[in-house]
Amino acid sequence: MLSEFQKTLLQSVKAFQSTQLVKNKYENVLQHLDSGIILFDSEGVLTFVNVEMAKLMELPRQSLIGCNLLQMLRHPHLSRYLKRKVIRIYRETFLYGKKFHELVDEYGRNWLITITYGDQMDGDFLLSVKDVSDYKRIEQTAYHNDKLAMLGKISAAIAHEIRNPLTSIRGFIQLLRPHLIQLGRDEYARIILAEIDRANDIIHEFLNSSKPSAPLKSVIDIPTLLGEVVLLTESEALMKNCEIVLSLPEDSSMTVSIDTKQIKQVLLNIIKNAMEAIEEMDAEHRGMIDISAHSEGELVYITIRDNGNGMDQNLMNRLFDPFFTTKEKGTGLGLSVSYRIIKNHRGHISVDSTKGIGTVFEITLPMVDSKSAVVGASQ
Ligand SMILES: Nc1ncnc2c1ncn2[C@@H]1O[C@H](COP(=O)(O)OP(=O)(O)OP(=O)(O)O)[C@@H](O)[C@H]1O
Ligand SMILES: [Mg+2]
């Protein structure tokens, strides 16, 4: 039988062991936290440093335990960069009572340093360091997007307002035209009117592209759509010495639910670009624009291939950027608007090109079941 004393001793040992277990558990958690942690006691002696902190300071943990701040600063392996930062944090904490410090290191990473002391710490000083680069990046992206959205709204408002004075100028130039003709300066009026029309076109396209217009969908067969587009462009192509060839697979159903006007605009933009690329070649060059379509799985692929002047990689990278143009009279909005339209239709647009040989544009659109689509369209 155990005496009363032995029982009490056994209980105390058990209690000590369980406290020790809990302590080890928490210490283990602190050791492997993804933030750096360092603890100074009320005498200013470093009593705890976790793995992450030692890694950040590039010093062995054991060489830090038991040091005071001065000894730590004199550590032979502490980098000069860190020494300067530690002194700065010390000054700002004790002179200005600052508890949060933000640092950007030599690799551009952002760090948040938090100091906790006072009653809640029983005289100890806890310093934690956290890598907040990802949060910073998100914050900056959000700020950038906000700025872009704001800029977009302002530009759209300005563009809209510029149209009114342009209309007045256009009207007055037309009134002045007979006088200019008398002076033998009809050419001036013609140029002014053409330039005003160009400015209006740019504004019109800009407003169209900045408006996130939702597609007004209806069901159509791709061969019908392509046939209509070819009909619209054929005569202009002929004048520019190029031929448009439409190749479609026989008896294949390719039904899509699209905003026909918008998708037509995309196809016309690409064909217009193709014709302009062909014009860049020498006069004897016989232009060819091949348009084809096929379906695969649930997608329809429309390909527009030209043998125009082509593009290098550099140009291709900027192709869909708004206002990017290599043409004297281009607005650089054709493809950026097209890109948006295709994206709004949950489709995809890609390009492949070789300088001096030609370019291929490929548009992918999701198909709809032709039978259920007709029912859907008539509802
Ligand atoms: N088929 C093509 N072949 C060669 N270059 C092309 C082709 N399509 C587009 N590009 C290049 O991409 C640029 C951007 O085209 P985009 O249609 O966006 O504007 P743009 O044609 O210059 O002007 P806009 O369409 O407003 O008249 C063109 O200036 C041209 O350099
Ligand atoms: Mg264009």
TrEMBL record:
Signal sequence region: none
Keyword Nuclease found: no
EC number(s) recorded for this UniProt protein: 2.7.13.3
All residue ranges annotated as the PAS domain in the record: 22-93
CDD domains: HisKA (cd00082)
SUPFAM superfamilies with a match to the protein in the record: ATPase domain of HSP90 chaperone/DNA topoisomerase II/histidine kinase (SSF55874), Homodimeric domain of signal transducing histidine kinase (SSF47384), PYP-like sensor domain (PAS domain) (SSF55785)
Enzyme kind, highest EC tier: transferase
InterPro entries listed in its UniProt record: HATPase_C_sf (IPR036890), HATPase_dom (IPR003594), His_kinase_dom (IPR005467), HisK_dim/P_dom (IPR003661), HisK_dim/P_sf (IPR036097), PAS (IPR000014), PAS-like_dom_sf (IPR035965), PAS_fold (IPR013767)
Domain Histidine kinase: 157-369
Keywords assigned by UniProt, alphabetized: ATP-binding, Kinase, Nucleotide-binding, Phosphoprotein, Transferase, Two-component regulatory system
Swiss-Prot/TrEMBL catalytic activity: ATP + protein L-histidine = ADP + protein N-phospho-L-histidine
NCBIfam families registered for this protein in UniProt: sensory_box (TIGR00229)
Name of the protein described by the UniProt record: histidine kinase
